[in-house]
Amino acid sequence: NAGVTQTPKFQVLKTGQSMTLQCAQDMNHNSMYWYRQDPGMGLRLIYYSASEGTTDKGEVPNGYNVSRLNKREFSLRLESAAPSQTSVYFCASNSPLRGAHYGYTFGSGTRLTVV
Amino acid sequence: KNEVEQSPQNLTAQEGEFITINCSYSVGISALHWLQQHPGGGIVSLFMLSSGKKKHGRLIATINIQEKHSSLHITASHPRDSAVYICAVHSGGGADGLTFGKGTHLIIQP
């Protein structure tokens, strides 16, 4: 099925460990996003990539790095995990064109716990 | 930074009732999205609006740009409509992502 695929779905890390969350879309979308969702808060933007080869910081980028590997794939890396990064992470994609906007497609989420 | 407020935060209703969820935002936008998140976490896009009204099945979304306000209505509500409904806005003209409300947790009882 066409859409956004995130892996893994669940992960437990120890403080200081590193990991990479993977995201791939097969809709030929230009733009990809990483959000985190915490209890009592709206989703917040970590990083985004407007097009292949570009990445930009969002609202909460500290402690994260990203790579737009190609048009399909956008990964999120935690170099040294901290308990404050315990959250549910969502990847999303869409394809804005000349100022128009289209519906976003979200991945199923990664539930990350840092102990 | 756009501030997005949703009301109510929680809503419990009986099957068949007409449901209204409200969203207001502080700064002019280029588009507003309504999203649905079921238990288990997946997020689905319901509507994208820049003006007027859209309808899909029993769901209706409206937006008033001058009032900076949008509503999501569910007619003939059903227990399967139980979910978190999230309002999100796109403030700019580029690809710089959405600002989200905290969501409205809706429970429809049989």
Could you give the topology of this structure?
The complex is a heterodimer of chains A (115) and B (110).
Chain A: E1 4-7, E2 10-13, E3 19-25, E4 31-37, E5 44-49, E6 56-57, E7 64-68, E8 74-78, E9 87-94, E10 105-106, E11 110-114
Parallel strand pairs in A: 2-11
Antiparallel strand pairs in A: 1-3, 3-8, 4-5, 4-9, 5-6, 7-8, 9-10, 9-11
Chain B: E1 4-7, E2 10-14, E3 19-25, E4 31-37, E5 43-49, E6 52-56, E7 59-64, E8 69-74, E9 83-90, E10 99-100, E11 104-109
Parallel strand pairs in B: 2-11
Antiparallel strand pairs in B: 1-3, 3-8, 4-5, 4-9, 6-7, 7-8, 9-10, 9-11
Strand content of chain B: over 45%
Element-level helix/strand string of chain A: EEEEEEEEEEE
**Percent helix among the residues of chain A?**
under 10%
Helix and strand sequence of chain B: EEEEEEEEEEE
> What Rg of chain A do the Cα atoms give?
14 Å
Shape of chain B: globular
- Separate helix tally of chain A: 0
Q: How many strands, which pairing sense, and closed or not: the largest β-sheet of chain B? A: 6 strands, mixed
Question: Of all protein chain pairs, which has the greatest interface, and how many residues does each chain bring to it?
Answer: A-B, 30 and 26 residues
Largest sheet of chain A: 7 strands, mixed
Determine the oligomeric state from the structure. heterodimer
Instruction: Name the structural class of chain B.
Output: mainly beta
What's the count of strands of chain B?
A: 11
Percent range of helical residues of chain B: under 10%
- Structural category of chain A is mainly beta
Structure annotation, total helices of chain B: 0
What are the segments of chain B in which pLDDT stays under 50 over at least 5 consecutive residues?
A: none
For the termini of chain A, the CA-CA separation is 35 Å
The residue-averaged pLDDT of chain A reads 91
Strand content of chain A: over 45%
Integer-rounded radius of gyration of chain B: 13 Å
